[in-house]
Amino acid sequence: MGDVVRVTHATVRAVNGLTARWAAASEGGTVFSAAGVWPLLAFLVDGAGGPARTELADAVGLPADEAAGAARELLGAMRAMRGLDSALGLWTKRTLELRERWEAGLPAEAHGVLTGNVEADKAALDAWAVKRTGGLIEEMPVRLDDDTAMVVASALALRTEWLRRFRDWPTTPEAGPWSDRTHLGLHRRSTLLDRVGVADTPAGHVTELKVLGDNAIDVHLLLGEVGMTAGEVLGAGVDILERRYAVVPGSRLPYGEVGPGLRVVKQRNTRPVPPTLDVETVAFDMSTRHDLLELHRVFGLTTAMDASRGHFPGISDFPLAIGSARQSTMARFGELGFRAAAVTAVAMFAGGAPPPVRWVTTTIRATYDRPFGFLALHRHSRLVLAAGWVTDPEPYREDEEDY
Q: Contact at 8 Å (CB) between 90 and 43?
């Protein structure tokens, strides 16, 4: 039985769409969570007015008057997902009076106070980030000063253990951008051929490998053709989730080089064995800080950044403008499982001799030995919780345990 998670397809599509747009605007190795930003934008659009309301609604991907309800639905759904902890926080100066209708739409336990002591307030916000992510994020990504009137933040932390673990060993690719280093490689063999497949997208072919967790949180590894950008590969991954592109599963692939990093071969064996899927990838441990205002058009914050006037009459009579919007994220992929966390904050101012070979079987070899993307998602709703592009895998250290 799956989790009892109630979230409409329109909301999932809106969040995943923001994931794709953010990926298209990203460069280099990165990890990010649109699911951490989207509820904040949705609550902000509910209180926005004028052009800021229009821009935020476009970024959210839903009509402005539906956004807050969808955000509440999403937060409730994420709280019901096993392996995922999520929270929303709101802090305001004592002198800032909020509209009752807007404040009532937030979780009752969310509201805290900014004392005006910047050092003390920062310590309190940092402690919230640590608590809500189990220590995976140690600092609230927000800039506070004497003019900060309000901070609204979200936190999420996800964890899953693989249904079938990897084994680790040193690996050095023969060619490509990683050929000059030895990485902590991960290997796994199974008979579940359809865990891998190939999609033909307008930007090129993409190989998708599904790594299933024990709590319905999975990670899809995405390898595109050489020359495809991170945005194209991750965007294709989102489109595959939305079933815009068909995936040819491993069991239906022909022999030969059938996709990026994917090869189907006849394998000689000393005993009768079923067809197998051999996966080779790399461990990674990465963290990123994002200044969302650098991508203000992606997040619909262009007008709301104008501090010459207020843009959120539905939140308060006090004229509010966006002063800071940042996210801190991390992701760790290893032999046993996956961890990821994100805190988003918006501040508003004023191997012997071989035996004889007798049998032949089919082996699918999936090799991730150059930069690739990943999507961490809830299996049943297909909601993307975190996404990233791996350019710098974990190095192999001599003291690593050999299996």
A: no
Same domain, yes or no: 274 and 362: yes
| Same domain for 372 and 238 | yes
129 closest CA partner among 155, 167, 148, 152: 155
CATH of the domain at 366: 2.30.39.10
**Across 25-34, average pLDDT:** 96
β-partners of residue 156 are 86, 342
**CA 305, CA 348: separation in Å to the nearest integer?**
9
C-alpha span between 403 and 401 (Å, rounded):
7
Q: Which residue type, as a one-letter code, is found at position 125?
A: L
Are 323 and 19 in contact, with CB atoms under 8 Å apart? no
If asked whether residues 174 and 44 sit together in one domain, one would say no
pLDDT for 109:
78
Same domain as 330, residue 292: yes
Together in a domain, 134 and 64: yes
Q: What is the pLDDT of residue 356?
A: 62
Per the listing, tokens 């805190």 go with: 343
pLDDT of residue 19: 98
Cα angle value 94/128/71 (rounded, 5°): 80
List the domain range (segments joined by +) for residue 75.
9-160+287-349
On whether both 133 and 263 belong to a single domain, the answer is no
Percent helix, strand and coil across the chain, each to the nearest 5 = 25, 35, 35
Instruction: Give Cα separations from 247 to 195, 258, 268 (angstroms).
Output: 11, 12, 28
Same domain, 311 and 265: no
- Give the rounded percent of residues in the chain with a pLDDT score beyond 90: 85
Please report whether residue 395 resides in a domain: no
Q: Shortest CA distance to 113 belongs to which of 129, 89, 131?
A: 89
Q: Compute the Cα dihedral for 278, 282, 286, 288 and give only its sign.
A: negative
Q: What is the pLDDT of residues 192-245, one digit of tens each?
A: 999 999 999 999 999 999 999 999 999 999 999 999 999 999 999 999 999 999
Q: At what angle do helices 34-47 and 50-60 cross, to 10 degrees?
A: 150
Residues 261, 240 share a domain: yes
Rounded Cα distance, 236 and 219, in Å: 15
